Amino acid sequence: MSYLALVIELMHACGNSRIDGFTQLLQMQIRPALIALTLAGGIASLSLNADNAEAQSGSQDTALGAHIDSLANAALATTGAPSATVAIVRHGRLVYANAYGSAKLNPTVAAKPDMAYGIGSISKQFAAASVLMLQQEGKLSLNDPVSRFFPELTRSKDITIRELLSHTSGYQDYWPQDYVPLFMQKPITPQAILDHWAKQPLDFEPGTKWEYSNTNYVIASMIVAKASGEPFFTFIQKRILDPLGMKSAIDYDVLGPSSIQPIGYMRYALGPLVPATPTGKGWIHGAGELAMTASDLAKWDISIIRKSLLAPASYHALETTMLLRDGVSTGYGLGVDIGLFNGHRTISHTGEVAGFTAANYVFPDDSAAVIVLTNQDAAPASDVISEQIIRTLFATQGESAKAHTGLARGIFTGLQKGTIDRSLFTADANAYFSDAALKDFASSLDSLGVPVGFVQTSQSDRGGMIERSYRVTFHGSAIRVWTYEMPDGKLEQYQVAPIG
User: Less CB within 10 Å around the terminal CB: N or C of the chain?
Assistant: First the structure.
C-alpha cells in the first residue's frame, strides 16, 4: 500500500479529545482531499533510542517510522499546527523519535527531537507518583484528610488526598479557559491560588462527582513539599527525573518560555499563528509545570510499563479507576485517564499549557506507548497524530492477519456482486445470508466501487470466537466490517455498517 493510501485511510479514523485529560474521545472526520496536499516535500528525521543499534535493527520499526512520518506531516498540514515531536515505545523500549515542522516561525527554525516542549497536565501524574512515594515511606496516606496539611481550606476535614488526585474533591478549577486570562499573566504564589480558589464553597459534595480541577494539583504539590520537607520540583527531580535519566525535564513554571527552544503559538479562530501569551510564574505549579522532550517522557512511560519506580501497590492505586460514592466509575485514576482503546488497556492523559498541547498514551499490557507534543494551544494536532499512530501501532501486520484481511476483502468483493462462498460460513451465517440479504448487500455496496484500503483495526475474543474489525475506505467515504470466527475457522458473522 502506498503511503498516500495509508494516510488517507488512517486519517478517516482520526479523533480529537478535549484537552487536559477529559476521558471521552470526540470523533472527527478529516477529508482525504486535504491529506493529499501534505505529501509533497519531507523533513529530515532523527531516530533516537536508548539502544540505537537495537532500534535500527528491526524492519518493523523502520516501516513504522516511515508510516509515522507521513501521518505526522499530513496532520500538521490539515490542523495548521507549526510542529510536533513524537516518541514511540514498543516491546518496552524506545524505538522511534522524530520531529516535524517548525519550532519557530519568522525566521523558521526546524523542530528537532531533542527540543523540550511544555507537557501541561501530563505533569499531574508526576505529582500523583510523588504522593504515592511519600505514602510508601509512611509520611502520608491517600486517605488522609487535606486538613492534615491545610486545615484552613474549605471542608478540608471532609476531603482526602485521594479525592484531590482523582478530581473528586469539589474544589473549583482556577484555570478552565483554553487561553491565558489577564489575571494569569502576572506572577502568583501557589499559596495565593489556594487562598482564593480553595477557600470558596465547594462546587459539589466530595466524592459525588468527577470534575477536572487544576486547583487539586496545586494543593497536592504543596502537600508533597510539606510532607517531604523540600520544594516540589526538587522532590520530583531527585526521586523521579534523575533516577529515570530524564535530563531534559525542567520546571517550566519557574523558568518560563525562554527556557525552551520551541515557541508556543496560538491563533484567533482560523487566523494566523501568533506567539501565545505565557502564564505568569506560579500559575502552573504542580498542575502543569514540566517541559521535556518526547523521548524523556517515553522514559517515564517505560517505567510505568516495567513498574520500576514505585511499589506494586502504588502502581495499582495510580491505575485504578476512582469510583464515586454511588459506585459510578469516573474513568480516572490518580492523575491519569483509565480506559480501553480498541480493546487495549490504556493509561493516558492530555495536556495544554500556553502555546503547547500534548498527548501521552501508555498501553502497559502491550508494552507500548505513544507520545505527541505540539507547539500550539487549543489545537487538535496532538490528538489527531496520537490516535493515528495508535491505530497504526495496533494494526496487525503478521502473515496470519494478512491472510484474514485478504479473506475478508474477498468476501466483501463477492458481496458487492451478491454472491458468497458458503463453504466459508457456519450454518447460522448461511441462514443469515438469504437471497433477500444478498440482494441488499449488492445494491448498497456495489456503487461504492473498489476499496482503496482494507485494514484490520482490532482483534478480540468474544463468546469463544475471534472478533476482527476492519476499516474499508473508498474515495471520500469509509465503512466498517467486522467478523466472528469460530475455532474451526468458519465465520459465524460478517457484518457491514457505516462508521458513526
Answer: C
Radius of gyration over every alpha carbon of the chain, rounded to an integer in angstroms: 24
**Region 399-498: CATH code:** 3.10.450
Identify whether the C-beta of residue 32 lies closer than 8 Å to the C-beta of residue 13: no
Phi-psi region of 256 (alpha: psi -120 to 50; beta: other; left: phi over 0): left
Q: Where are the domains of the chain?
A: 120-393, 399-498
CA–CA separation, 423 and 355 (whole Å)? 58
- Read off the C-alpha cell for 301: 512511560
DSSP of 338-370: EEEETTEEEEEEEEEETTEEEEEEEEGGGTEEE
CB atoms within 10 A of CB 500: 5
Query: HSE (CB half, 13 Å, CA atoms) of 221?
Result: 30
The b/e string for 18-35 (b: 16+ C-beta within 10 A; e otherwise) is ebbbbbeeeeeebebeeb
Global confidence as pTM: 0.76
CATH topology of domain 120-393: Beta-lactamase (3.40.710)
